[in-house]
Amino acid sequence: TACVPPPILGVNVVPMTSNAVLTDRTIVVRGGVVESIEPTASARVPEGAVVMEAAGRNVTPAHIDMHVHLKSADLDAYVRAGIGTVRNMWGFNGLMGWARDIEAGTRSGPTIISASPGLDGQPPQWPETVIVTDANAAREAVGTQVTAGWTYLKSYARLSVPVFDSIMRAARTAGLPVVGPVPLAVDLRH
Question: Taking the model in full, what pTM does it have?
Answer without folding.
Answer: 0.79
